[in-house]
Design a protein that fits this description.
The chain is mainly alpha-helical and 114 residues long. 84% of the residues lie in helices and 0% in strands. It has a domain of 50 residues. Keywords: Signal.
Length: 114
């Protein structure tokens, strides 16, 4: 067994550089392929999972979006109420509809005390 290894090593030393490099690449290929498989699995796991900070950022964006929508509805409601007080019946209907949408959103928009 040791004698055959010595012969293989002598044979590799006699081979030209490019052939020796090819033999080395062939010998180390299983290790490189296995390491790529591990990295690929880790990358896939990272893509599938969501970290706590990513989840918090997504939640923050969603809350901001709802707050912006609620703020726009509030301005529209105030405008509709002013027009309703001036006797515009269509504005009164708009105000009722906007108020209903605001009521539906109230539970999902966090309340911050001043």
């Amino acid at each position: 067994m040791i004698h055959s290894r010595a012969i293989v090593l002598c044979f590799l030393a006699m081979l030209p550089g490019c052939v020796a490099k090819s033999a080395f690449d062939l010998a180390t290929a299983p290790v490189r392929i296995a390491s790529r498989a591990v990295n690929t699995t880790a990358d896939a796991y990272d893509r599938v999972t969501v970290s706590d900070s990513e989840r918090d950022q997504k939640r923050g964006r969603e809350i901001r979006r709802r707050e912006e929508r609620y703020g726009k509805l509030s301005k529209d409601y105030d405008r509709a109420m002013r027009n309703c007080d001036r006797g515009n019946d269509e504005a009164c209907d708009d105000a009722r509809q906007i108020y209903g949408e605001m009521n539906a959103m109230r539970g999902s928009v966090p309340y911050e005390r001043d």
